[in-house]
Amino acid sequence: MRVFVTGGSGWIGAAVVRDLIAAGHEVLGLARSEAAAAAITAAGAEPTPGDLNDPASIRSGARRADGVIHLAFGNDFTDIQRCMDEEALAVEAFAAALTGSGKPLVFASGTPATPGHVSLETDPFPIEGPLGGRARSAQAVLDLAQAGVRSAVVRLPRSVHAADGRYGFASTLIAAAQRSGVSGYVGDGTQRWPAVHRLDAARLFRLALENAAPGTVAHAVADEGDTMLSLAQAIGWRLGLPVKAVAAETFGFLGQVFAADQPSSSALTQARFGWTPTHPSLLDDLANGVYPS
Known about the structure:
The longest helix is centred in the N-terminal third of the chain and has 19 residues, at 80-98. The chain is globular, with a radius of gyration of 19 Å. It contains eleven helices and twelve strands. The strands form three sheets. A seven-stranded parallel sheet has the order 3-2-1-4-5-6-10, sandwiched between helices. A three-stranded mixed sheet has the order 7-9-11. A two-stranded parallel ribbon has the order 8-12. Helix 3 packs across helix 4 (80-98) and helix 6 (170-180) packs across helix 8 (228-239). The protein folds into two domains: 2-158 and 196-219, Rossmann fold (3-Layer(aba) Sandwich), CATH 3.40.50.720; 163-193 and 224-288, UDP-galactose 4-epimerase, domain 1 (Alpha-Beta Complex), CATH 3.90.25.10. Helices cover 40% and strands 20% of the residues. It is an alpha/beta fold.
């Protein structure tokens, strides 16, 4: 299968590209810069120029391919609305290119916080709140299943990690600890975060591309929920710092997200796709991995 991947030069995207190629697929990677094009080429894929603000490049890449995996997102938390607007524009471009084609479109989103219970694949997208725009885009992708697109959404947890120094939202905890001299947590620290190793997540994106039925939601979750306190303790131990409760505002925009209990299950996903996470847990990687300086 020829697969068009957005975000293929990114940290998660690069793992997805390598997994696709190892499984025998051909990859076209959206490249917004010469550096991105070089990274995509080095991974064995073919770069195609464009970015999320260029709908023509999105439509062209999707039409040239047999399937699409969308991973690109700005992740600029100083201007998150702009990032969500860019993503919504990309979804419109995918819809224009893929409607009626029967091609697969796999879209990256986030696991929802569902107060009172562990979130499941059957839980609706939280279209309100600070990240509601992302949820609305994900729902729009699922709705394309009614328009002749084999659409699926893979929900990623708060921490997609590896031992090379990148730990998803847990990296924010590390940076704050290094800056302040305290490994902090919000509230009583019992709120839980799901996590997954990036190589396990990459494999699930491929499986969804190959096998997902139209309108499928999958959860790329290996660790159902590590407490924020346990994460702060692991970081404090590695850095030799005290572990204390801090104000949510310590973490800026993300503080309100960090305060929520948000465990998530992947039981349905594992049964549906035969997907079993095999790589280290987040706590293992925090204990043994590299920390950014």
